[in-house]
User: What shape does this take?
Amino acid sequence: MSEEPSGTPEPSASADGGAWEVPWAEPFAADEEQQERAQLAAAFGAAIRRTSSLMQLMGQAAAERIGLNATDLNCLNILSFSGQMTAGQLARATGLTTASITGVADRLEEAGYVRRERDPADRRRVVIRLVLDRAISDVASVFLPMVRAWQKSASRYSDDELRLIVEFYGQMEEVIRQHIVVLRDSGEPGRSPAPR
Assistant: This one.
C-alpha cells in the first residue's frame, strides 16, 4: 500500500491529460515573490479537502457500525450539542427539509436514540429529545478511540495555539453553513449554483 501524500500537493493529471492545480480556483498570491505563500495556500486547501473526505468516510463507517445511515447519525450528532431540538430547529441546523427531519426522527425514535415530547413551555410544540444513555452506550463508544487520539494530538499545543485552532474551526463552520444553504437553494440537482 502506498503512503498518503503529505506536504505541498503536486499538480494532478486531469482526465484529458492536462494538469490542474489543487485545490484553489484562485491562488492566495500570484507574484513570484510570494511563492512560499502560494505553496502554503495549496497545502492548506488540500489538508481541508483530505480532512473533510476522511471525516465523511469515518462518519459513514461509524454509521454502518451503529446501524444507522450517515444522515441520521449526523442529525444525532447535531442534536447531542443541545440535547433537544424541535424539528424546525434541526432542519435549520442541518439544511434538511422538515419533511426529511420527520423521517430522521421516526428512524432515530424507532432505534431508541430519541423520543418526541411536548414542550412544557408550549404544548403545541414537539421537541426531539436525545436518549442520553442509549447514545453514550451505542454511539459515543464507537467514537471514543478517535476522540482520545484527538485529545492526545491537542495536548502537544499551547493554550494560545488551541485558541487559534478553535477560532479557525469556528470560521470554517460558518463558511460550510453558508455553502450548505447555497447548495440547497441552488435549484436543480447537478447544476452549479450561481455565484453570489
The longest strand covers residues 122-130. The chain has six helices and five strands. Confidence is low (pLDDT under 50) at residues 1-15. Helices lie at 35-66, 70-82, 87-94, 98-110, 132-154, 159-184.
